[in-house]
Design a protein that fits this description.
about 350 residues, alpha+beta, BirA Bifunctional Protein, domain 2, 12 helices, about 20% strand, binds phenylalanine
Amino acid sequence: MIEEIESKVKEVLDFSSQDSGEIEKFRIKFLGKKGHISRYFSEFKKVDVSQKKEFGKAINKLKLVANNKLEELKKSLTKDSSNNSGNIDLTRPANLIELGSRHPISIIRDKIIDIFYKIGFNTSEGPEIEDDWHNFTALNLPFHHPARDMQDTFFIKKDPDLLLRTHTSSVQIRHMEDNDPPIRTISPGRVYRNEDISARSHCFFHQIEGLYIDKNVSFSDLKQTLLYFIKELFGKSKIRLRPSYFPFTEPSAEVDIYWGLNSETDFRITKGTGWLEIMGCGMVDPNVLDNCKIDSNKYTGFAFGMGIERIAMLLYQIEDIRILYDNDIRFNNQFRDSI
Ligand code: PHE
């Protein structure tokens, strides 16, 4: 038996490899749980007392030699791989990290916020998942009101209803509930409607709505505010207000801007009229104020709302709304200089 151990010592000393798989096999063979060394240790118990001393010495030697060998092999392996790093060309230029750009929707949103900020409007935000009260009922749209069909709604849960907000007017309700007049706020955000996806419409888009509540706010204040905004954003100075209907405003109007007919594109996008519909607006219905615990005998206000995509498409001459949601960096980067 002692001779056998001596021959294993020789085997260990003679072993050499640069292959990590081979080295692992070597470790298992000698130092593993079922390897030679642990086998010899279990046989040690059965060895005659007279031989125990010599036998123990031999096993301990084998163990020491095997451990040293393993250390040595591992060291030479890591040294070798660090040698490999010498082959890396440190002067080679790195792969460039492409620099992104703001998304056109963010650019337009911030521009609009900025324009209203100059005349004292702050910004307010609210949740995209809304309850029935903030998206409909408080906005003068009680449960069976036919105008609920004006905006095809994605419902999440029934009784009590949870839904994806169909407009950011819900944020205005929240803002009126939490703040006392005077109120001047702009609410940008994403909204959802169950509409077919095409070049001109999508099942989600972005809106920006405005709200102004104070004593003696009149329709002429609304018109002047919109005129200021349109001059700042589009550089145009002619608007017209066409009577319209929204449940939460009375009277309500659709705002058209005079775009002009100076090019073929102007003809196409205005259908030959020169006018472009750009947003909805109106005087806040007294019921809405009362719903938000604002005294409608004391206060009046106006509200307006528009789609950001539509404005981005107009200003940047984008023909298909879907391209705005691709997030293709080659597309987004085109707007870098317009910030
Ligand atoms: N909330 C309306 C919509 O989504 C827009 C609007 C806002 C109209 C405020 C009038 C006043 O279509």
